Amino acid sequence: MRSQARAWSKFFVKQHDGTREPLTREQLIQALEYSDDPEAQELINSVTRHVVSIRGTRPFWNRKRQDLEAYAYSLGCPGAFITFSPADLHWRSLYQHMPRYGEWLRASEPERMALSRYLLRQNPHIAAFHFYRRYCFFRDIVLRKKFNITDYWDRYEWQGRGSPHNHGLYWMENCPGTDMEDEAARDVFARTWGFHITAINPEPTRTVPQGEGNPLSVDPLSIEMTFLRLSQIVNRCQRHKCNTTYCLRARKRTGDLARDMEGAAADIEAANVASPERECRFDFPRALRELAAIIRKEGRSYYVFEAARNDNLMNHFNPAIVLGWLANIDISPCTSLQGVITYAAKYCSKSEKKTEPYCKLADQVLPHTARRQPLLSFSSRLMNKLIAERDYSAQEISHLLLNIPLQEGTRLVVAVDCRPLAQHARSYRVDEDVNETIGSYRKYLERNDQHEDITYLEYLQSYNLKTWRRLAGQAKKRVLSYFPRYRSMESSPQFNDFCRVKLMMSHPHRSPHELLVVGGLRFDSFAAAYKCCREHHDTHSDDHYGEPDTNELRAEDDEFELEIHEEPVADEDWHELARMLPDRPLEEEDIDILGRRDIDINYDWTPHVGRYTDNGILNGDYWKQRKAGNRRDLDVDHQPLEARDSLIREQRLVYDTVMDHFLTREPSQLLLHVDGGGGTGKSYLINLLSAHLQAAAAGRGTPVWRAAPTGVAGNQISGTTLHSLLHLPINKDFKPLSAVDMAQLQKKLRDNIRL
């Protein structure tokens, strides 16, 4: 992650300095003297925007939150929210991939738990990948078929001792409507979901019989699915246990709001003795109820689903899911878009501890900025600060190293810049230099005549943004993430911009000014033009940007205070070693202090003085100078003519074919494909041919250019790579050769034989 921070810092500086004069340290300090000022905020935000690409950071999750909100606006309210937790101390499917599996099977329950903890600590990568694959198979095989899932958005999170959890929102076919203001609709919603979700404990008074064993670690294929099996699992996994480090919180506000505490359990009362003002943020214990219902929680604007329950502490569950997953799950139907937006703000981009604003982080790193390349130093430090503002568990690190996605979804999200064209963000492509590229909106405005009648909405949702080819028929439409979302109230000063965006998405145009013309009439404002559009056009596709005079959905505040419970962490040996290094804090990567540490100052550098005096090292272009001074020479060592007699029959056939073609000066092209496995003499034949062709050229230089697909193969034949020879881009957009490059390449290849 720090390596990515360095790379993105260099890119940011290249981009910044390519458009204006480089900043000195004094100018940077002056620019950020008041970090709350708009100019300073613009610089800080331009740095943090680049951190979006570093997975797991706060800006990364903020972007994912915006993506989730775009899903909700585009696809409507999802059917259900489901959380999957692991039983990674018990799952047989996990430990069969671990070392010492036979010992794990034979062990008693206490011995097995101790061994599981040890194996989990030693093999976090296996646990991380197993959870990912288990969830993906479960989602695609069980959930998709049981609930007719059409779309989903899910993310991974690490809690407590570092085990992963998956939180997902799922869109389903034929879900009941979410018109919660209609009592009849609420009743249908509750009865429909009541068939699928319950909090009924099959054995509310169950006690574990002696010698019963662990229901989570048995082979699920050898166990019959009975109510006893269901009871064993839900009583082990689904009953909530309150504690101060997990769910007991103090409310942010006090008042006369009463809570329904019917049937409160004794363990909750005991937990609250030491801290009576704390309450469970998940509202346990909950009231018993015979039938599922839709209720409105106190202090909330939206309704929630409550399943039938006979156990105050039982989490919602679906029997099929909990029997298949064999670990704790939570499932709740989504009742409104408001609830989804609140979830996105509360959980999707949440941090493990209270985080500071970006401007405060900038204030902390600014005094430590280096004098040389100050902008690079500042941006690198700020990015590293964002990376290091929380802890990462071993399984999360393994998840990142294995390149497993942190978030997955069925739709591709496209960002839509809704600001006026002159204010649009600039797009860049990175090759040897930073080059500006055309943004999506400019590409749309400059489209070919054959796409004249296509709207910007159609282009973004259903076309390849580079080639303008329509996506395949089975491809899902893209989800559009609008920024900013202007207020749609007619009294708002942003209403004119709101109307401009609505026209921009639905009306084909070549210039933003054309949007002022509707039905052949030109209007003075976008608001007036859009009013005319609404009166006369009723066939526009839904752009999911909202309708006029509708309230904007905003996340509701959490009713509980955020509390941090830090557990003591046993340092690894390398942590202790890191603290012994001079001026080298564990949490910072301080490159700029190199040369000024005590160990550097006290060292006798005399023997090293004058060793590296090359100006190229000081100027940073050492390798460019070396390449310029050592041009590639494709000449090969002399080989006597008799060496051709060492060739076997097939090699000699190739040799004679190439030599005859060259010596007779045959103008037609010779295309010859020779196959052979490793060690069959291909490189020897190529080098011998090169030597004899070089001799036949009689001092005019070698007529041969040797090229291979890879660097290793090219080195074997003393040649180059094909992409280097032909100027083919690697992992970059294809660009036509410039006239100068084309002329040079044609000159280089005009009289050559390519091997």
Largest sheet: 5 strands, antiparallel
Instruction: Estimate the helix proportion, in percent.
Output: 25-40%
Overall structural class, as computed from helix and strand content, comes to alpha+beta
Percent range for β-strand residues: 5-15%
Main β-sheet, spatial strand arrangement: 8-1-3-2-9
- Total helix count? 29
Number of E strands: 19
Q: What is the first-to-last residue Cα distance? A: 42 Å
| Rg, nearest Å | 33 Å
Mean pLDDT over the full residue set: 80
Catalogue the unreliable spans. 254-275, 427-437, 559-580, 582-592
Shape: globular
GO molecular function: 5'-3' DNA helicase activity; ATP binding; ATP hydrolysis activity
Enzyme class: isomerase
Protein name: ATP-dependent DNA helicase
Pfam family, one: PIF1
Entry summary:
This protein has 755 residues and is an alpha+beta fold.
Question: What layout of secondary structure does this protein have?
Answer:
Elements: H1 2-17, H2 25-31, H3 38-51, H4 58-75, E1 80-84, H5 92-95, H6 101-106, H7 109-122, H8 124-147, E2 149-159, E3 163-172, H9 183-194, H10 227-237, E4 248-250, H11 266-273, E5 278-280, E6 293-296, E7 303-306, H12 319-325, E8 329-333, H13 337-348, H14 358-365, H15 374-387, H16 394-401, E9 407-409, E10 413-417, E11 427-430, E12 434-437, H17 440-445, H18 456-462, E13 479-483, H19 495-506, E14 517-518, E15 521-522, H20 526-536, H21 573-580, H22 598-601, H23 615-619, H24 622-629, H25 649-663, H26 682-696, E16 704-705, E17 707-708, H27 711-716, E18 720-721, H28 722-725, H29 739-749, E19 753-754
Parallel strand pairs: 10-13, 16-19, 17-18
Antiparallel strand pairs: 1-3, 1-8, 2-3, 2-9, 4-5, 6-7, 11-12, 14-15
Helix pairs in contact: 1-3, 1-15, 3-15, 4-13, 8-16, 19-20, 25-26
EC number: 5.6.2.3
Domain Helitron helicase-like: 4-170
Domain DNA helicase Pif1-like DEAD-box helicase: 647-736
